[in-house]
Give the backbone structure.
Amino acid sequence: MNTASTAEGTAPLEGLLVADFSRVLAGPLATMTLADLGARVVKVERPGTGDDTRHWGPPFSATGSTYFESVNRNKESVELDLADPEGRAVARELALRADVLVENFKPGGLEKLGLGYESFAAENPGLVYASISGFGSAGGRDLPGYDFIVQALGGLMSITGAADGEPGAGPTKVGVAVVDVLTAKDATIGILAALAERARTGRGRRVEVNLLSSLQGALANQGQAYLGAGATPRRMGNDHPSIVPYQLLATADAPLAVAAGNDGQFARLCEAIGSPELAADPRFATNPARVAHRAELVPLLESGLSTASAEVWQDKLAGLGVPCGRVAGIGEGLDYAESLGLSPTVEVRDRSGAAVGRQVRHPIAWTPPLPPRTEAPPALGADTADVVRWLRA
């Protein structure tokens, strides 16, 4: 079974037990975060098949689906048939022992099995019961929650992709299931807040999050542009609606991301490309003016940048304090993080201690240091016998 202590300290959530009744991405990512922070996470899976993502691929690593592996390290796996009275009995024992329960069944699904929040609140009043859904437990309770659909219905696709009239124009999804990831983080925040409250009151509570609300909560300036000013954001490709230049600009060989967030940075950019007069031009001297005259400014900047490669400009502009960067692949991004001393990955090990692969580490760093937990994702049902024996001891 997992342990949360490390040689250099005690993980923040050591001693907490999480019953994980979730699958796919949002729920498992939330529970993996709790596991990374020291909690013991027992993942309940369907006999024979387990979490859907165990079968999502390619790609597959030497040990299984990379999708499943990305959100299930540092957990124990038990196979329980919740349609069977014996399986439900074990699930109930687990929930009554747990500090946190996380589930993403269709709203009302666990209630029908006698495993809803109210069924545990009296016997386990300290339980924090977190439910994750696509569209909430009211009018959207029967709608299936898929990240792709929420990106469409929630407005994210309407502001993502090339603008009308440009090559490849049309709405597009983000390149990762970002709504699931955002929802996982919201769920984790809610769980931790409820645990902090429990430390004062001794009582848990139910926490509900849904993909649509998490997306809309993350629309930030775009959502407020609509609510506060009646502006309807539109697709602008890599351009920013409120800052110029804050976009990809062409160089001699490849695009360069440039983010001149203030007039001083813009002036240094103009100086670097040999056109200092642009910073004094009334059309470009202030950010609102640059936004109004975007179409005139961008070709002038790209003309100056055409004299050297993106890599050369990255080095030169970064040295001048102008935020910029080449468009890198994921591997290059990890290498860059490594070069900055960020240690972006960890080596995970199986139950025997053998190294079986690398994963992106949890992004929080600690002082005093806490070495990351590095147990590889569990095989289906690897801990069923041990967990059942422990529950009934």
Confidence is low (pLDDT under 50) at residues 1-7.
